[in-house]
Amino acid sequence: MKRFYYKAKSGNGYLNLKSPLSKNELKDYVEITEEQFNFETYVAPHEPTAEELAAQEARAEIARLKKRLADTDYCVIKIAEGAATVEEYADVIAQRAAWRARINELL
Questions:
Q1: Is there a contact between 20 and 1 (Cβ–Cβ < 8 Å)?
Q2: Cα separation of 87 and 76, whole Å?
Q3: Are strands 29-32 and 14-17 parallel, antiparallel or unpaired?
Q4: What is the CB-side half-sphere exposure of residue 59 using CA atoms within 13 A?
Q5: How crowded is residue 6: how many other Cβ atoms within 10 Å of its Cβ?
Q6: How many other C-beta atoms can be found within 10 angstroms of the C-beta atom of residue 37?
Q7: What's the distance, CA 28 to chain centroid?
Q8: Which residue has the higher pLDDT, 12 or 77?
Q9: End-to-end alpha-carbon separation of the chain, Å?
Q10: Which of 8, 10, 25, 93 is the most exposed place for a label (fewest CB within 10 A)?
Q11: Digit-coded pLDDT (tens) for 67-77
Q12: 3-class SS at 32?
């Protein structure tokens, strides 16, 4: 399907149409090629800054730590229900405390 590309004479916009403009409508626009339209309307992809990358890495680490906490919830539930003792899961409880501390550091 043929497309029609126009640039505003004022320089404030572009049109990408399926049908050509009428002579009356054409007074405010200049027809341009598809290549020129694509070149002039191209928006470069956003390159994240160092701060954005650091924030993204922090969010990913927080998600991993929350997953670990969720995966070890059963230990705390067993202790709460009396099916296990704190001593049996002392290492898991200490690790969970470290994970929560790290999450708080990252926030």
A1: no
A2: 12
A3: unpaired
A4: 6
A5: 20
A6: 19
A7: 39
A8: 77
A9: 52
A10: 10
A11: 999 999 999 99
A12: strand
